[in-house]
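User: Run a structure prediction on this.
Assistant: Running it now.
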Amino acid sequence: MPIDAAKALAAEPRTGELTWTTKDVQLYHLGIGAGIPATDPDELRYTLESRLHVLPSFATVAGSGSPGVISGLSMPGIDVDLAKVLHGGQSLTLHRPIPAQGTATATGRIAAVYDKGKAAVLVMRTEVADTDGPLWTNDAQIFVRGEGGWGGDRGPSTRLDEPTGEPDRIVERPIREDQALLYRLSGDWNPLHADPEFAKLAGFEKPILHGLCTYGMTLKAVVDTLLGGDVGRVRSYTTRFAGVVYPGETLRVRMWHTAESTRVAVSAVERGDAPVLADTVVEHS
């Protein structure tokens, strides 16, 4: 069996240094669609170094691209075919606002291995702190097709009840044809998002957008629409990747808002509102 759950869970945590600059933050923001219109004062907070704030989802790429997925696949006890791997979900907890540039220590480990029958799910936890203390905790749920069935723990259900009533806000966000190519420059080089031949081997008609790009676009929509553009209000952000989205499509973002949290559902407009993100919650002040 390519996944040795006991070995993966017992492995020593890996520790490394993360360093990022304002350029890395700006590139990430551009990769999730910031900067349109280019001279909009609200967009300049994402693109101009003298006004820069950091969208919390930058934590998923800070310093090393896609640490939760790529690092998780290289941990002891894990030996799988990249073409069978999908990013199943992502959870992010913010301990304080992320600085526009900095150096921090990241500690990563496999926190759980679940047997879903036809697939395995790995939970890669990355805890990040700098000299002032904890910054954020990332949990990446890594879905590996064809690697379940060994009789292990199925794990908890992450499914939530459907939101009730009409959404408080609905916004649409277009995805540029080159969006995945630009987002790759933040460090996630999986060929699934650029190479048509690799995408077909993985079962897709063409390259798909990174799930974490959709994740960032969605958080930006919530912050800009409901939180007054204040990234510091975000406390945590969780989602399940429910379906693919292709560059050139349009995201429809539905939001059910309360004082402390916002439920979100994201779909692809051009494919009959096909689900893209589900069980999505932004907790905030």
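The mean pLDDT is 93.
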